[in-house]
Write a structure and sequence with these properties.
Distance between the termini: 32 Å
Radius of gyration: 20 Å
Oligomer: single chain
Number of strands: 0
Shape: globular
Strand content: under 5%
Length: 267
C-alpha cells in the first residue's frame, strides 16, 4: 500500500512537471507566445465565417452563428491537438524512457492536460462573444463540465492508442492526418444538421465528436440546436456514442498497457 502511495505521488509530481514543460515549450521562441493559443482558432474562425456566411450563405437562419462556428472550431481543435500531438509523444520522450523507469501513461496525460488549458482559455473567449451577442445563459449550462469530461476521456483514449501504435507503426501519423481531414467535414462544425437529410444526420450524430459538439452548443448557445436525442426521439440513443467513448477508453487503455513494456526497446 505504501509503495502504491509513493508511486501515485511520484506520478502526480511528474505529471505536473510535464504539463508545465509542455505548455511553456509550445510557443517558445515565437514573438506572440501564448497569444497563439487564441489567435490560431480565431484566425480560422474569421476565414471560415467569411466564406460560409458571405459567399456560401450557410450560416443563415442559425441563431448566433458566429459563436456556433467558433465553438465548433475550438472543440475540434482540442480533439486534434490531443490526438495528433500524442502520436509522437512516446517516441519524442525516448531518451527519458530508456533512462528512467516511470509510468509511461503520464507522458500522454500531460499532453492532454496541456491542451485542456488551451481549451479553457478559448472557452473564456467564447464567453466574451456570448456576452456581446447577448446570448441567454440558461441553468442547463451546469452540464457543460460533464460534456467536456466526455470530450477529455474520448480524446485521451484515442491519444493512448495512437501514441502506442506509432511506436511500432510509423505510418500512423499520416493515416490519422488524412482521416481527420475527412472527419472535419463529416462533423457538424461548419454547418447546421438541418442542411443534411434526416437519415444522414442520424448516422453522423452517432459519432461521439458530433454528439459532444452539438450538446455543448445546446447548453451554451440555444435550445434550437439539434441533438442526438431530438433526432431519434429518445434519450436511450445517447447510449450509442457514450458506449463508443467507453469502449474506446477500455480498448485503448488495454492496448497502451500491453505495449508500454516494449517502449524502451522500440523508441
Amino acid at each position: 500500500m505504501k509503495k502504491l502511495q509513493q508511486r501515485y505521488r511520484y506520478s502526480l509530481i511528474l505529471l505536473k512537471q510535464l504539463v508545465k514543460t509542455d505548455f511553456k515549450l509550445r510557443y517558445q521562441g515565437s514573438v506572440l507566445g501564448y497569444l497563439w493559443s487564441l489567435l490560431r482558432p480565431l484566425a480560422l474562425f474569421v476565414i471560415l465565417y467569411v466564406v460560409f456566411t458571405k459567399f456560401l450563405k450557410i450560416g443563415e437562419g442559425v441563431p448566433h452563428y458566429p459563436i456556433y462556428l467558433l465553438l465548433g472550431i475550438i472543440l475540434w481543435n482540442y480533439f486534434i491537438e490531443v490526438t495528433s500531438g500524442s502520436i509522437t509523444a512516446i517516441v519524442g520522450k525516448g531518451d527519458l524512457i530508456r533512462k528512467i523507469n516511470f509510468p509511461k501513461y503520464v507522458i500522454v496525460v500531460a499532453g492532454s492536460f496541456s491542451a485542456l488549458i488551451n481549451l479553457t482559455i478559448n472557452f473564456v473567449v467564447v464567453g466574451v462573444f456570448m456576452i456581446f451577442s447577448q446570448v441567454d445563459i440558461r441553468q442547463i449550462v451546469v452540464l457543460l463540465p460533464l460534456i467536456v469530461l466526455e470530450l477529455f476521456i474520448f480524446s485521451l483514449a484515442m491519444a493512448f492508442f495512437l501514441s502506442a501504435a506509432f511506436v511500432r507503426f510509423r505510418d500512423i501519423n499520416y493515416i490519422w492526418e488524412v482521416l481527420m481531414q475527412g472527419a472535419f467535414y463529416a462533423t457538424p462544425i461548419l454547418y447546421p444538421l438541418s442542411l443534411l437529410p434526416i437519415a444522414a444526420a442520424k448516422w453522423l450524430m452517432l459519432n461521439p465528436m458530433a454528439q459532444i459538439i452539438q450538446d455543448i452548443r445546446y447548453v451554451l448557445i440555444t435550445p434550437q440546436t439539434q441533438t442526438i436525442d431530438q433526432l431519434y426521439g429518445t434519450q436511450l440513443i445517447r447510449l450509442v456514442p457514450f458506449g463508443i467513448v467507453l469502449g474506446t477508453a477500455i480498448v485503448a487503455t488495454w492496448y497502451f498497457r500491453s505495449r508500454q513494456r516494449f517502449f524502451a526497446e522500440e523508441v
